[in-house]
Amino acid sequence: MKKVSKIYNFLLVEYGYQGWWPLSDVYRKTNNFYHPNNYNFPKNKKQRFEICLGCILTQNTSWKNVEIGIKNLKENKLFKSRRLLNYDLEKLKELIKPCGYYNQKTEYIIEFTKFYMANRRKDFARENLLKVKGVGPETADSMLLYAFKKPNFVVDTYTKRILLNLKICKEEDDYYTIQRLFLENINIENIKEKVNYFQEYHALLVRHAKKYYRRKEDYKKDPLINILK
Predict the structure, then answer these.
(1) Cβ–Cβ contacts within 10 Å for residue 118, how many?
(2) 218 to 53, 214, 215: CA distances (angstroms)
(3) Model confidence over 32-90: pLDDT tens digits?
(4) How much is the average pLDDT of 177-195?
(5) CA–CA separation, 218 vs 171, rounded Å?
(6) SS (HEC) of 72-140
(7) How far apart are CA 43 and CA 176, in angstroms?
(8) Which residues make Cβ contacts (< 8 Å) with residue 65, sequence separation at least 6?
(9) Coil, strand, or helix at residue 146?
(10) Given this model, what pLDDT does residue 52 score?
(11) Is the model's pLDDT at 123 over the cut of 80?
């Protein structure tokens, strides 16, 4: 389906490289969490662990809220899995409170951290990640794509909203049906290039959706409607 490539090409020209996943180490140097056109992250275990926690914290909230939680965790040196597990739970809840659903997310973080420590010397298999409480398909694929550089395409609410408006998918299509749409129509053999492309595509869709898909009255203003005619 040529539309898949057309969408990406338009979005890249429109918004440029996005530099996901946002990281606190980048913020310390540039006052910005993002690293456009630099796919060398994560560079160490701390950054990998931070990305995984960020994938949990961003559930059902905006990234601006997550940034506050990430800064709090970093200030308390909690991007070390063993230290986090030994940290006082009530204090941890306060640190991530800006991210919303903090009781639930604290539980998810603890469960994931136990899994992370038990599997850090093994391959993080998707089917095992999905067994961790609080880790669904979108969160698992985000972790694998951004933290472990595996070519799993991330489908979020914004992605489906855009595709529905463009009449590329149907309301009844589930996560995996939409994911296959991308996987089967992006022909990149090199794994590294595919990972970079998938990261960029996901980030660009989110950027685009924030402009045109927060209010239903803006859906019809999406320039992709005319681009894909």
Answers:
(1) 10
(2) 32, 8, 6
(3) 899 999 999 999 999 999 999 999 999 999 999 999 999 999 999 999 999 999 999 99
(4) 96
(5) 19
(6) HHHHCCCCCHHHHHCCCHHHHHHHHHHHCCHHHHHHHHHHHHHHHHHHCCCCCCHHHHCCCCCCCHHHH
(7) 30
(8) 98, 99, 100
(9) helix
(10) 98
(11) no
Cα separation of 215 and 128, whole Å? 37
State pTM to two decimals: 0.96
- In this prediction, residue 27 has a pLDDT band, given cuts at 50, 70 and 90, of confident
Sign of CA dihedral 142, 143, 147, 150: negative
Separation of alpha carbons 10 and 78, rounded Å: 39
Residue keyed to tokens 């019809």: 220
pLDDT at position 107 is 98
Closest CA to 206 of 1, 13, 15: 15
Per-residue buried b or exposed e for 158-169, using 16+ beta carbons within 10 Å of the residue's own CB: bbbbbbbbbebb
Please provide residue 101's backbone torsions phi and psi, each rounded to the nearest 5 degrees: 50, 40
Kindly state the tokens that stand for 22.
């946002």
Q: What is the pLDDT of residue 32?
A: 86
**All structural domains of the chain:** 2-227 (1.10.340.30)
Question: What is d(CA 17, CA 37) in angstroms, rounded to the nearest whole number?
Answer: 6
